[in-house]
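[Q] Does anyone have a clean structure-token version of this?
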Amino acid sequence: MINRVLIRIKVVQLLYSYFLVQNNFAVMSSPEAPTKEKRFAYSLYLDYLYLMEEIARRISSNSKNSPLYETRFIQRLCSDNIFKSIVNKYSVSEFPLRGCQDGLVERIKESAIYKKFLKDPKADTKIWPDLFRHFIATDTAINALAEKYDNYSMRGIDRAKDMVAQTFRDFASSQDNIADGLEDLKESLGKARELYFRLLLLPVEITYQQEVDLDERRHRYLKKDEDLNPNPKFIDNELVKLLNDDEEIKDFIEKNKISWLEQNRDLVKHLLKVIRESELYKEYIKDPMSDLHEDCDFWRKAMKNIIFNDPDFLETLENMSLFWNDDLEIMGEFVLKTFRRFEDKASSPDANIGEPVLPMYKDEEDAKFGKELFEATVKKNVLYRSYIEEALNTQHWESDRLAYMDVVIMETAIAEILNFPKIPLQASLNEYIEIAKCYSSAKSGAFVNGLLACVIENLKESGKLRK
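[A] Here you go.
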């Protein structure tokens, strides 16, 4: 019932907020009013970080990937402006710790820490603190090379190691809100499920309000003939009876304490009035006889053409949940499909149709898809951003043309393309282009399409993408 189209939209929306508000991890700045010891410590601290990035680049797995380089810590490090300045510095000058790299690379490749990480690369938040503590911080060759630095001191070495440890802690704290982001995703998908049941309940409660209105008219002092003998066709609608008697709908409504009548009776009265004044209603009640097909068809049309387009209804949805106006198109389609399933099951009770109310997810893969896509994007979003920037440079597009939502959409698209091999490439592309058209700027669809096509071409040429 919650399909991958909606899941993608939810993931993009929440990633946009997540990336905007997440704690900003940054390399430590140069100390103010530094002593000689602090200057030495800061210089060594930056070289420790550069050494880790160099090691990450040089260690490849059997598949020729560089799993250590793709860890979140190294990716975030490479995006930091202070670190970029160090990379630029050592592109034209000698790196002081270069002589110890070969030995470290070999020892790390053979270590139990690294081999354990290869078995579970998702658990990458602890790998660099462990490698630093067990190999880099204790390496005698590094200490020997550090003695050649200006203002060398043993206390300075300890201070540099403490600064690295603090950088690891800062990075870890910047990752803590991933759990919050996933919880927000779960809540948002749960609210979509709630909207589905609320929409199924709406015909029942609108019909009940009609019954209340008719009963009040019967007890009016001055009665008209239509008050004494009202047309019962609307309140006898067979689909409404099926919805009202369905155990799964009743269980969800009772468990979640949902009622339009109790929470917004004025809206129910308004919708009933709009329906009664419609040509659809007038045509429907002309003939007192009806069948299940006609009853279902009436509510499909009433929901699609009247309720889903009613300004008061849309405003109420927006006030009730930030998610629901975005969810309405997809949830509305599933509600209309559910009406059809009720009709089919009642018309052919012996057919193997299954329960009319749709399950929350089609299968287990769909149930896990949102969480896995969110995590995949967060884990390597800096790497995916570098693919986007490479494509920008190739096509001579200006980075300031990119709306931030476009960036998030493309990072999520790249995460899906690279991490979900069963999903056809073109299917992923089409979905994210549509998301860009709906949720970003007017020209975003064409721009995202062109830029993603360039990213995909580059990934295929480099062997990173094979589907």
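[Q] Thanks! Anything notable?
[A] The first helix runs from residue 4 to 21.
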